[in-house]
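question for whoever is on the cluster today: can someone run the full assembly for these? three chains, 864 residues total. i dont have access anymore since they changed the login thing
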Amino acid sequence: MIRFENVRKWLGDHWVLEDVSFEIKRGETFFIVGPSGTGKSVTLQHMVRLLTPDAGRVMIDKDCVSTARGRNLERIRTRFGMLFQSGALLEWLTVAENVALPLLELTKMGHEEIDKLVREKLELVGLPDALAKFPAEISGGMRKRAALARAIILKPEIMLYDEPTAGLDPVSARKIDALIADMQVKTGITSVVVTHDLQSALSIGTRIAMLFEGHVVELSTPADFVKSQVAEVREFLDSQYITRRGDWEKNTP
Amino acid sequence: MITREPVYLPPSDTRRAELGRDVLDLVCNCGRALLLLFSAIGCMRFAFQGRSRDRIVEQMFSSGIKSLGVISVVSMFTGMILALQTGIELRKFGQEVNIGAAVMVSLLREMGPFMTALILAASVGSSFAAQMGTMTVSEEIPALELMSIDPVKFLVMPRLIAMAIMTPLLSFYGCILGVIGGGIVGSTQLGVSWVSYIDNAMRFAENKDLYVGLLKAFLFGVIITVVSCHEGFATRQGAVGVGRATRRTVILSFLLILVVGYIVTRLFYI
Amino acid sequence: MNTNKPPKRHNDISMELIVGTVALMILLALSYFTIVVGRQAFWRKTYPMEVYFDSVMGLRDGDNVVIRGMTVGKIRSLTLVSNEVLVVSDLSRMLQMHRDYRIRVVFTSVLGGRQLEVNEGSADSPMLPPDVRLHGNPPVDLIDDAAAMIKDVRSMLNEGGVASNISATAENLSTISGRLKRGEGTIGRLLVEDGMYVQLQGTMAEASNALAQIKIVTTKLSQGEGTLGKLLMDDRVYKDIEKTTANLRDLTDRVNAGEGTLGKLLAKDDSMYVNLLATSRSLSNITARVENGDGLLGKLISDETLATNVQQTIQELRAAIDDFRETSPVVSFSSFLFGTF
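^ ran it for u. tokens below:
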């Protein structure tokens, strides 16, 4: 569904992506992991053309997103929902208004219908009481969940998550994980998650790609990932105290 | 497309390369700001669709009505200062009665729009820039764009319309208060009665003064909005960037207001 | 693949570059036309007019050209050629001069400011060929204008063969003097200027004529003659004559002190002062006030009977102030605002 073909990207003074190629299939929960500064977010941003590759291309089905323009790009983008690292809620709107925003702006739905949908989505992300609160009044985890509600309200085919669990306490983080997994199960949505949190990746991911210094050094299922012999992967696993004999194998399909 | 890739360039080797890059940046920024203006004008066809209309009214309130206080005070005192200064000079010729005309005409033509614009640039313009800047650095602008909500239509167009309408109105309001302030000084300090003051003011003010003043105010409103939104959208590097965008907005708006004010005066009065 | 070299910049700045370049060019062009190029309008078609003057009295480029009070163009340039000044102006319309055309430099106000006044000549006089060299008339000084006013006053005195006229004149003059007591400015200056001596002498002569007529009237009255007898009942005439006496005394004092223009005048022509009555007081007072002059030319305006001349002077003063104000909104802003803080 999403295919990276030899993508290269120069940012600042070095190649952030040096020849990245992989393919994400429909319905997958695909994780991109790696230490900070290895181009995970950059990879994600290439999928919706927030960044344009210097070489290579990114294909979304049959559309080349790297060269799309105007209406075409807009059409491709409507297939995506994206959860930004900060949530990116509009600060001057309440949570409910934030979630309702895409419907108000882009559809001709009536107020009652919108209201119903907003409640439904907020319930789905576990925020039924935060309707009238402003983003500044709720915690980071709640903000991410509200943002998630906003991202899925237009029923995208592909959800992109940029560090969904970063900066959250473990409990909130696992709640977010559960949400991502839940959504995948309920809607069959394709999810791409960028994170350095291997706990999430190993528990809910279908496949994991490890980026290191602009290259994909490992691309496998969680079960194989923990067994990987690649030095960078091992170091990364060790840094999070994950051993080969963890109970990850049970969860893998 | 508002969200753009950050362009990282290697440090330039020579002074000349640096200068060239600065000039290129200036030209590109200028073009980008104008394209922003054009696309905002293009978005005006949506101006009367439900939500946009609400947002315009909201902006008119928050940027226009909320500035009434400061504009009242500043205009009033400007009128008083004008009356006092001209009055002291004119008294030497026994022409104090003409302060009405002096205050009215200078306010209508120049001071009213100019002051209003400076106040709005410093208050509303900087807040626009800070808001857009914060939204840009906290990924709200890209988020909007990914949701296919055009930030220009959603954020810039309502502000542009609100400012294009409110600046002339505020400017006119400022003129009226300035004239009243001048009248107060005239009647208490210079011995010019209200009747003769107002009579004199009305006799010398022409419709043209009013219209050119309003045109200026309109242009100033557009300048403030475009500059502030452009600078906000161009923000990079977090809080520091927001600060820089705000600062640049105020400076650039002031400069452009002065230059455009001069050009308009020149075109209409010679 | 060479991994150390950065890629080229993307091409998506080209649109911005084009728009920016165009915008800056327009701004530059606007600046050029509004700042560098002179004051003529640059988008209208203009017709040049060349006029030769002996003296232009401080006419400057950018000053207006008016026909019958209507502005039709601006002075483009002034050049010295041999012993003349070539004045080139841009007019908004083609002018067809007649043989009795008149072009002169006039004051726009008492505070200065000049304009070129063009009179194409009367329609029934023959047309000038288009390539003829136009000559301007010598400039007009406000002082001369004021002198003309004095002439008017004189003619008023002159024509006043009847007592009612004289009384009106006397009243007017005393009003003027009253106004000018506190007055300086053009009229005040006029009266201290030695050059005015001759003019004044003329006026005095006329005044003496008029007073001679009063004498005749008085004589006739003393003989109880005719309907003029009722003039005796006229309070104003009585008062005027009374003033006259006081004036005479005042004048004599001043003459003794040899003060001012009038003093000089009277010292020279001793026989005259005997006949100076109504005018003497006014004028000597003016002289005195002018010497330590303070006050308001403007007050003159309330006089309704006296001559459009005075009123015009006031209007000119207003125009001058108006002008001053109009031409410098930015200047006034900076001086008022920044000057204040």
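summary bc i know u wont read the tokens: The interface with chain C takes residues 8, 10, 13, 15, 18-19, 52, 54-55 of chain A (CB under 8 Å). The mean pLDDT of chain A is 83.
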